[in-house]
Amino acid sequence: MRIKITRFFVGGFFLLSLWTMPQVRAENNVTLANVLTKLKIKGRAAMGYLRGGRMSSFPSGSFDIPDAKIIFNFFPDNNIDLTARFNLNNAGGSAASGATNAPLVDYLYIQGKDFIPSLKGTPWSLNGRLGRAKIGVGEETWSDNPIEGPLPSNSAAALGGSDELVELSGKFWAVSIGNGSRGVVTDTSVAKAVYARLFYTPLDSLYISGYYYNSGQLGITSSEASIAGLVAVPAGATNWKRQVWGGDIRYDFKKGKKFVKPLFFSDSKAAFRVSLAQFKDSVRGAANRNGTFGHIDGIYNFTSSFFVAARLSGIQLAGSQTQSINTVTTHYYGRASLGGGYRWSDNVCVKLSYDYNKNGGAGTNDANDDLVSVLLTMAL
Q1: Which of 35, 42, 221, 256 could form a Cys-Cys staple with 71, CB 3.0–4.6 A?
Q2: Residue 167 in contact with residue 153, Cβ under 8 Å?
């Protein structure tokens, strides 16, 4: 039954888009003469020096490139674009630095905007995505990198992930169906992941959002939704699924002329964000795994060039459970981050930060994995 519903949803999406697609005029056709005008190239990079405690990924200090991406956007017409993102990171997947290992092409999707012309400009305008794309769980996920984030590091939980999916979205909502199981190969489970998100700006300076994610039954494969690096099937499990739900609140002081999701690029005098979420891993053949996580972070712009940023974040498992969180076997993991920087220009910045990490629980020891980061970041 779930297969039929999924096929109906996907098939309906394509029929609707074909039925409502505006006719493409001859001058918009892609030819050898205009192909380069249809292509846009963007990118970002962060490089510098990272030095951590004796149990961190950088105990001796290392010059590194924790994030580097090149993004190609191809626009065959005004309503459709193809996005391909290439991951050129060389960092070793340190959870403290926010780096993750990923395939060379980590995003590849087709996106359609306003494909029902009669609804364009209304609250019910309809957009869609098909392919491998980001799962929009939480607001931090839209800027979970050293370039777009207010600090070089992410929160302790760093909720995020990507999946092969089909998504529909509007002015204040988004829903998707995806594979759920981790990897870029054919899905191994009949059950599919579902995701829903609501977001709204009740006041000019206030933005709120909430989300729910259900991976569906994953068998013994890992989950696409990562929580503090925790993606693997629980030990001894014969089947499992992951559910995550939470919400975010953001407030801008002396709000600037533009509202952008990344706090770092905001032209408000200051902005802060509060996030709280829970997850539940329902497990067959082993004990369930669940917990709570969240963060409070913000940025203050002394001038258009100088800024400071801070974050308090943590994740704690229910009961007395211990798991591998950010590569550390622990019951809880907390992080206090303080940093700042100088914007050389709109696209180039020097960022410095210190992350104080603390973990513990019965039978566990503190990992001594604090981190100092000095990075040059740029957006292209």
Answers
A1: 42
A2: no
Give residue 168's pLDDT. Answer: 94
Instruction: Residue 164: count other Cβ atoms within 10 Å of its Cβ.
Output: 21
Tokens of 359: 């973990």
Strands, E, within 58-144: which ranges?
A: 62-74, 80-87, 105-112, 127-134
Contact by Cβ (8 Å): 168, 127: yes
Please, are residues 263 and 255 in contact by the beta-carbon 8 Å criterion?
no
DSSP string for residues in 219-275: TTSPBSSBBTTB-SPPTT-SEEEEEEEEEEEEEEET--S---SSGGG--SSEEEEEE
Q: Give dist(CA 194, CA 211) in Å, integer.
A: 11
Structure tokens at 116: 């029902």
Partners of 40 in beta bridges? 73
For the record, the structure tokens of 39 come out as 């292509």
Identify the structural domains of the chain with CATH numbers, from first to last.
2-21+39-379 (2.40.160.10)
Helix (H, G, I), strand (E, B) or coil at 7: helix
**Cβ atoms within 10 Å of 203's Cβ, excluding its own:** 10
Contact 83, 106 (CB under 8 A): no
Structure tokens at 23: 């006719």
DSSP-assigned states of every residue in 269-325: SEEEEEEEEEEEEEEESS--EEEEEEEEEEEEESSSSEEEEEEEEEEEESTT--EEE
How many percent of the chain have pLDDT more than 90? 63
Asked if pLDDT for residue 198 goes beyond 70, the answer is yes
β-strand pairing of 127-134 with 348-360 = unpaired
Quote the pLDDT of residue 55: 81
The pLDDT of residue 98 is above 60: no
